[in-house]
Amino acid sequence: MTNVHIVNHTHWDREWYFTSMDALVLSDQLFSDVITELKRNPEASFVLDGQLSILDDYLTLYPEKMDEIKVLIEKEQLFIGPWFTQTDAFFTSGESVLRNAMIGIFESKKYGDYMPIGYLPDTFGFNAQIPVILNEAGLENIILWRGVHLGKQIQSPYFKWESLGGDNKLYALNFPQGYGTGMLLEPTLDYVEGRLDKAVDFIKQYTHSTEIMIPSGNDQLGIISDFSNKVEQIKELGKYDYQVSTYQNFLGLMKEMDLETYRGEFREPVLARVHKTIGSVRMDLKQEIFHLEHKLIRRSEPMLVIAQNLGITISNRLLMQAWKKLLECQAHDSLAGCVSDAVAKDIEHRLKEANEICDSIENIVLKRISESLALSDMEILLMNTSPTAFSGEKVVTLLSKTKEIAIVGCESVILDAEFVESRENITEETPAGNRFITEPGYYILTLRVMCELPGLGYKVFSFEEVEKASNSLNIGDGTELSVGGYQLKFEKNQLVYRDAKRIIPNVISLVDDGNDGDTYDFSPLPNDTEIALKFTDCRCEVSTFLNRMILTGSTKLPYDLTERVNCKMTTAFTYQLILELNADGEIKGDIQFENTVLNHRLRVKINTEQPINQALSAIPYGFISKENQEMAGWENHFSEMPVNIEPFEKTVSVFTDSASCSVFTHDSKEYEYHDSELLLTLLATTDTLGKPDLLYRPGRASGDTTKKGHIMMATPLAQMKDKQVNSSFVLKFDKKEISEKEIADWRYGLEQTSISYQRQNLNYFIYRIDNKIQKRIASLGLKEQEFSLLSFAENPGVLVSGLHNSYYQSGFVVRFENPTASAVELDIESLFSQWEVERINAIEEVQEFSSRISPYGVASFLVVSK
């Protein structure tokens, strides 16, 4: 007999084509009904979509219901968590996904227990390292839907999923027909024979198990009343043994099954769409999300570790608040961008608020250190938030009465100098009262400084006025940059790259094509032709250690899809590419333009000159290799075209027969390669939430817009019209055999941030809240001009992926990642010689101590004073 386990749940999109406030209004009645129904039927249970944020939102309306909810959770009737929001699993970093679980679990504890399952039933596919992330969050199960190719990747929807390194494993439960398989649960013959029995029949094609899972719920669907009695009636009508169950119960049964094992990602659009081109829509929001994620992980969190150890007390809850706002933006629909414009405005506002929290925390920490050290206005505080000592370039901003300055003991170059004019009749507050003065003019200088900094700490530098600064960029008439054995030359309207091994014409270019897609997917316009954006002007700027080329151009483009179809080009599109070449042959690029046209995709194209055989893209805590797949006959197997457009996490490398080419960027996570060209998406703009019958995605529209009674929804903000766009990257050509460790080390170096502060009274608004930060009663008592909390004298062979204050106790957490195929043993005594160290997981549960980090694995340590 086949036992069919039915679980009652809701899938609660916190925002989509409706806003989070709309969802809050809906939750008022629906969640109240859940509580009422569960209290009335003690045998019933309900899954609140695995994300805590929606329950927190509801409790703002009914704080008095907290005790009722805690009782229902304790009785295992109501299941909450473990996530704060249901995360995207491709365009979110591993550390962000971990924070989602860490904060979700931390906040769940105020209610009682949480559901110990990585519940992600609607995410648009899954990266191959989800087993690492979930195991590190103390989870050993996952429930998922999209991206699984039954019969190819796995044979059964019940299986084991292991990490790239093989040491991390999950019990995985797939919903082949989605989380709405058993929705409505009507005890009628039409429902049972027409829907439920057929769903079980379908699943049984792929498994010999006598235990089958059927989820009963759907989007914003409330609890099913009298659930147990309805299941009993359905059991009498159907041909299977239907029974009320829980996910935990079914996963327990799975552990007794003989399960196959899978290693790899899930991104096949077979039974459900995964929207393979969704990485390019609403790129203005995506960039802000990527940058905020980076700021929190690489700046704000480690800065608070330094602050706490210097005696600066700032609540960890402030950073949690910033993280929550980001995590709300990283829910699968929100980060994807397949939302209404009203939601896009909400996302933009949350990002603004989170950035303000981070910037204001930074302002307080740097000012308090600078005041304690009694720094003068001719001194600058530089901070290193990495535990690895730093030697190289940092960008600093300082204010000076003259442009002619020099950093004492360091080489520097002025990148930008803005003069602020003198002002008359300015009020100055003094102990004797207010007086009116003439405020002198001053320069706001942006400099690149060659310096050395201790690990996880700070150092004070001074600058002085000089008669004639030698650190200005000199503008030359040439069209060539040469550094060592490397050369960039602009000739015949193309950029040519030369080194000892190769000459590559048209090495970097911009290309544009039409976008007939929507907020879910890019889709080409039939018979469209790619337009090359040529550069026409070039100027070079050089100094002792900075060599820069500025290329500009302007091209007429079609204003909209109608003009593209009719081959008209009426709208000027102007663009600039700033390039730097360094002694290692790296090319740093910064693309700038104002978006003046509609419904188009703009990409940067990198020429490798030789055919590309494969790509190696970074993913959380590892790498995955991919080759282009043949598209012929895709309509017979897939629900959308499985295009060779793929995600990456900050770096992607492509390989030819004789060389490699690697790119690093914070600004895009979508690439494609064909022939000898690697393309990174800068933006893809669109006018509609969901369209039917696209070339890449035939049939119904995504996003409900072509359901009965629904309407097409315009998204003018997704056109990014008149938006100023900046996108930066770093490019290097290398030997063919470049290793994953070399790429990861290169990435880690480029991830480091520039943090500086000058205690001055010329302009209090250079920093967010400088003029409102009051002195504390207790002094920090700092005296040393250089401080290091933790400095790894030698390369530990792995990278630091996260460093933050403990959520639960004193001390801080250091998490290492090993992005290679070989295990690494850490020298703990050497790394933490002045500290007590415990091996923990991300939710700070103590683990059996080990200094080993698995291949493509992570290891977290709690670090406390001896």
Describe it:
With 866 residues, the protein is an alpha+beta fold. Among the domains are: 3-274, Alpha-Beta Barrel (7-stranded beta/alpha barrel); 280-374, Substrate Binding Domain Of Dnak, Chain:A, Domain 2 (Up-down Bundle); 379-470 and 754-761, no CATH class; 793-865, Immunoglobulin-like. The protein has 15 helices and 46 strands. The strands form eleven sheets. A ten-stranded antiparallel beta sheet has the order 19-26-27-28-29-38-35-34-31-32, covered by helices on one side. Strands 25-24-30-37-36-33 form a six-stranded antiparallel beta sheet, with no helix packed on it. Strands 4-5-7-6-10 form a five-stranded mixed beta sheet. A hairpin with a 2-residue loop joins strand 21 (486-491) and strand 22 (494-498). Helix 4 packs parallel to helix 5 and helix 9 packs parallel to helix 12 (341-372).
CATH architecture of the domain at 3-274: Alpha-Beta Barrel
Strand % is: 25-35%
Helix percent reads 10-25%
- Please state the structural category: alpha+beta
CATH class of the domain at 3-274, named Alpha Beta
Number of strands: 46
The CATH homologous superfamily of the domain at 3-274 is called Glycoside hydrolase 38, N terminal domain
Unreliable stretches: none
Major sheet: arrangement of strands: 19-26-27-28-29-38-35-34-31-32
Our measurement of the CA-to-CA distance between the termini, rounded to an integer number of angstroms, reads 61 Å
Mean pLDDT over the residues: 96
- Radius of gyration, CA atoms, in whole angstroms: 29 Å
The helix tally amounts to 15
Q: What oligomeric assembly is this protein in?
A: single chain
Query: What general outline do the C-alpha atoms trace?
Result: globular
At the fold tier of CATH, the topology name of the domain at 3-274 is 7-stranded beta/alpha barrel
Largest sheet: 10 strands, antiparallel
